[in-house]
Amino acid sequence: MAIDLRSDTVTRPSDAMRAAAADADVGDDVYGEDPTVNDLEATAADLIGVEDALYVPTGTMGNQIAARVHGERGEEVVLDRKSHIYQWELGGLAQLSGLQTRPVDAGDAVPTPEQFESAYVAESLHRPGTGLLTLENTHNARGGVAVTPEAISAVAEAAHDRDVPVHLDGARLFNACVALDVDPSRMVRDVDSVLFCLSKGLGAPVGSILAGDADFVAAARRVRKLFGGGMRQAGLIAAPGLLALENVDRLATDHENAARLAAGLDDIEGLRVPEPDTNIVQVHTDDLGVEAEAFVAACEDAGVRGGAHGPHLTRFCTHLDVDRDDIEEAIERVGDAVETLRA
Ligand SMILES: *Cc1c(COP(=O)(O)O)cnc(C)c1O
């Protein structure tokens, strides 16, 4: 069977999650009457030390809701040019909320205060003004980089000095917290809203959490309805989400597996594989003279699935459905794929 390392979203719900879904106590969540959703929202808010939280179907919707709540039509959003919100959400800021993006090149995965300051524009007769700063942790496209809370606080302070709110796309927030051994409440202390996915490393089949203070979440609840995300007996899918929150500590296993995978692949001549911070492994194939698409195809033939994320960049992700034996096997198989490519 192929070892699927395309993403940490490919996991299948456990038997316990399926049983929890079947047995979930439900009600109409648009009326606020689904006890399982209410429990999930309260538990999630508690876990990261914020006032309130909102269950949303996807991470993308959560980010887009946050932008709509924080930003005013026409305003600019400062973000990293490699951020998910900028690259992979179909230009949603413009399409859904009339916001304009001002990307910066955050080489360290989050913009520095100086970068924010140079990107900031004050509102005037000619300029819309900066309405939002978004950050990402872990940073997906930069290689699952775990950003320190100090770096987040520094740029958040610069934004707040200009009265600009800060949203954190923490699709993999807990990967960062586990990797750096930082309490989630510290990680989100200085941001105005945070999104995290239940459906990635935590292993839930569906769902994300958008969190912040009570006023933010009340406004977000209205925008969720506007965007078509008000769900009815959503306890059926929220119940596995509650179990997913128990998977936070085991992310360390994914990180160890990623470290082993990276080391094993880096030993293969022609591959350059930096040591990962978390569960995302980036494989550079320029030394091999093979483009990512061709490398991915060869790996697929050898029984390992990955994704092309740049001309010579392939991404492999570890997750809860692959164990150490799978990783050792994947290293062997990628070695075979490289042999075929050389032949
Ligand atoms: C996956 C991801 C999202 C979006 O989550 P979906 O549930 O797939 O919509 C947002 N940001 C980052 C950094 C992600 O990796």
TrEMBL record:
GO molecular function, one term: lyase activity
Cofactor annotation: pyridoxal 5'-phosphate
Residue list for modification N6-(pyridoxal phosphate)lysine: K200
Region annotation (Disordered) ranges: 1-20
InterPro entries hit by this protein: ArAA_b-elim_lyase/Thr_aldolase (IPR001597), Low_specificity_L-TA-like (IPR023603), PyrdxlP-dep_Trfase (IPR015424), PyrdxlP-dep_Trfase_major (IPR015421), PyrdxlP-dep_Trfase_small (IPR015422)
Domain of life according to the entry: Archaea
Domain Aromatic amino acid beta-eliminating lyase/threonine aldolase, first and last residues per copy: 4-286
GO BP term, pick one: small molecule biosynthetic process
Record keywords: Lyase, Pyridoxal phosphate
Family label: Belongs to the threonine aldolase family.
Name of the protein in its database record: Low specificity L-threonine aldolase
Gene source species: Halobellus rubicundus
Source taxonomy: Archaea, Methanobacteriati, Methanobacteriota, Stenosarchaea group, Halobacteria
